[in-house]
Structures are given as C-alpha cells and as structure tokens.
Amino acid sequence: GRALDRLLAWDGAETVQARGTLLAHLLYHHLVRRTFGALLGEPLLTRTLGNMNLMDGPLWRAWSDPASPWLPAAARPTLLAEALSDALADLEARGHTLDTPWGEAHTLTLHHPAGVAPLLGASFSRGPFPMPGSPFAICSGQYAHDKPLAMTVGPSYRQVVDLADTLDFELRTDGRILRGGDLAGPPERDLAVRAALALKER
C-alpha cells in the first residue's frame, strides 16, 4: 500500500522537510517492541528503550541472523506486518499522516527551570522548534526511544574527514544519515527498506 511505497521511496534524508522519515522512525520503534517485548516484558523493555540506542545492535543482529532465538523465521512476516500496523496507528494517534514532514514531529523544546511553576511557568520555556537529524544521523537529534520523537540531545561537533585527502573535507550537519548509523548503530534506512520489501513480497 501507500505506506510501503513511502518507505521504499525514502532516501534516508532526515531534514526538517523530509517525508517518509517519520514513518521509518515509528516503524523502527515498533519493530523493537514487537521483536523483544514478548520475552522481555513491558517494564524491562521500557527501561531498556530509555537507555540511548541500547537496542539498536540487538535489533539489527536479531533480524540479520536467520537462526535468531528472538525471531523464528515463520513468525517474521507476521511480526513485520504488526509493527507496520502499530506504526501507522501511532502516526494517526499523534495527529500525523504519511505526508507529515520530519520536522513537524521531531522537535526541540528548551525547558526553563521555572517552567514547572504554575500559571506562568510555561511562558519561560521556548519551542517546540522543528529539528533535523535523529539518533542515527551525523546531525544527531537524539530522542529517548521509550518516548519518541521529541529531541532531547543535540549533536556534538562532527567532522567527517577523508584521511587520504585531509585538505578537502566536508562537514556534514544537514540531517542526512551516516551509512552505518551514528558511528555505532545500524543503518536505519536499510532496515526500513528491507522491512518494506519483505511486506511487499507477502
């Protein structure tokens, strides 16, 4: 359907205006929940998701290993379909659509310490501001995986250098995915595309 086409058309961009990014992130989130939730249980899963990017490696290995104890081969198509259904329901519950740009959902709010005060407290905080990037981008826009998608941590200084040509390098902070993830995590776009292709083949 249209959701799968949106995932397959996504080029990995995580700019404020990018389309498809939001669905890919929600699919990723619900893929984690469907993959590990039954065995870990909700309390442990939620606590684990709350640790920055702790589930990324295990998720990638679980789906890459045909003999993974987390994912019996026969159950994978059903689990994928369920994760996509969860993602679409989540998208709707947040008031978004398949055409919602990434920056409308991925935002940063600067919370002032006085923001907790009654009545006028909220007026001290600033935002939400649309933000590019994600936990998997050079321009990091980290969110807590137990509470996606609002940004909680920004990028440190990122400099990508070709060591064979150190005089001509490019500093990338435009919200495009670094192949291989955030220098440690899995390539999220590849996982989203693989999931979409698998569902198309059902």
List keywords for this structure.
two-stranded antiparallel ribbon, two-stranded antiparallel sheet, 202 residues, globular, mainly alpha, 40% helix
Give your account of this protein's structure.
It is globular and about 55 Å long. The strands form two sheets. The protein has a two-stranded antiparallel sheet with strand order 1-2. Strands 3-4 form a two-stranded antiparallel sheet. Helices cover 40% and strands 7% of the residues. It is mainly α and 202 residues long. It is built from seven helices and four strands, in the order H-H-H-H-H-H-E-E-E-E-H. Helix 2 crosses helix 5 and helix 2 crosses helix 7.
Layout of strands and helices, then pairs:
Blueprint lengths: L1 H8 L11 H20 L1 H8 L6 H9 L11 H18 L8 H4 L1 E4 L15 E5 L11 E2 L7 E3 L34 H13 L2
Helix pairs in contact: 1-7, 2-3, 2-5, 2-7
Radius of gyration: 18 Å
Give the termini distance in whole angstroms: 12 Å
Into which percent range does the helicity of residues fall? 25-40%
> Using DSSP, what is the number of strands?
4
Uncertain runs: 171-187
**Helix/strand/pairing category:** mainly alpha
Shape: globular
Q: How would you describe the oligomerization state of the chains in this entry?
A: single chain
Quote the average pLDDT: 81
